[in-house]
UniProtKB/TrEMBL annotation:
<keyword id="KW-0677">Repeat</keyword>
<dbReference type="GO" id="GO:0016020">
    <property type="term" value="C:membrane"/>
</dbReference>
<feature type="repeat" description="Solcar">
    <location>
        <begin position="121"/>
        <end position="206"/>
    </location>
</feature>
<feature type="transmembrane region" description="Helical">
    <location>
        <begin position="124"/>
        <end position="147"/>
    </location>
</feature>
<keyword id="KW-1133">Transmembrane helix</keyword>
<keyword id="KW-0999">Mitochondrion inner membrane</keyword>
<feature type="repeat" description="Solcar">
    <location>
        <begin position="214"/>
        <end position="304"/>
    </location>
</feature>
<keyword id="KW-0496">Mitochondrion</keyword>
<keyword id="KW-0812">Transmembrane</keyword>
<dbReference type="InterPro" id="IPR023395">
    <property type="entry name" value="MCP_dom_sf"/>
</dbReference>
<comment type="similarity">
    <text>Belongs to the mitochondrial carrier (TC 2.A.29) family.</text>
</comment>
<feature type="transmembrane region" description="Helical">
    <location>
        <begin position="80"/>
        <end position="104"/>
    </location>
</feature>
<feature type="repeat" description="Solcar">
    <location>
        <begin position="10"/>
        <end position="110"/>
    </location>
</feature>
<protein>
    <submittedName>
        <fullName>Mitochondrial carrier domain-containing protein</fullName>
    </submittedName>
</protein>
<keyword id="KW-0813">Transport</keyword>
<dbReference type="InterPro" id="IPR052217">
    <property type="entry name" value="Mito/Peroxisomal_Carrier"/>
</dbReference>
<dbReference type="Pfam" id="PF00153">
    <property type="entry name" value="Mito_carr"/>
</dbReference>
Amino acid sequence: MAGPSKPAQLGPWGKATAGAAGACFANVLVYPLDLVKTKLQVQVKKSADVEKQEETPSKEVHYKGTWDAISKIKDAEGVAGLYAGMSGALLGVTSSNFAYFYWYSVVRTLYLKYQNSNAHPSTAAELSLGAVAGALGQLFTIPIAVVTTRQQTQSKEDRKGMFETAREVVEGEDGITGLWRGMKASLVLVVNPAITYGAYERLKDIIFPGKNTLKPWEAFLLGALSKSIATIVTQPLIVAKVGLQSKPPAVRNGKPFKSFVEVMEFIVKNEGALSLFKGIGPQLLKGFLVQGILMMTKERVELMFILFMRFLQKLRSQRVGKAAALAAAAKVASPVVAK
């Protein structure tokens, strides 16, 4: 008789697939916000004096805020303009989240195994595990982020496909290493998902103690709150990273930034310290919605995987039982041969 099967456990591949699916679905829904926040973050804010001195209007479009950007993009390029570069963005989001959740699951499992304890990791440990997972994921996915940022910040006339944009980056001043522009900033920014998922696990224990399976609205709430905290803390670094990966502003005459510190110095000098938080409105709204939907979807997909695995285990157990019964019946029915 077959012994009882162990409860289905979702491994790193299952968690990574669930996280990637949730991220892709969430970003499809709010992609225009992602496009708008990127455009707001790369534009150089003009002072009132400069605007008065300009006798002829500049060809470069400037946006006053989220709604102004959406309106101007829609008027100039139609609704399709709000989804410019979406294919590359979704590829980047899906791959980066798959890598993050895979490595997070691996390093967290190894940590708990090493600790030999069922207790939840401390807040510091959660942040460290998230940072390690984020760094490993960034190494493989940053070229897609560079290409996507270029596509999002190009005008309709200059916009190219993913491969053409990647070729343009490679043929630039930095060569193939240009695909990894902003790598240092990206590695520093691993604190963003680290804070997000560290806060998620901690808030989960505080708000919903003892719950292993969350309701959709509970997962949404935790995801949205944790991402909002992480975004406010890391917004200046996010702005600097976008500045590094996009084309340099016209006032630099094509000279690219060399580091995220240089980007931040340029912004403070030309626009003021508060501009380090430019685009935070759509960034917060996007993060609130995306992370909420992501975690809500991820929880559902993980549950579906677990139920599917239990179904497979049940089928296997039934087949083993039938095979054992047939073997026993055959043994009883077989004639005894006398010597």
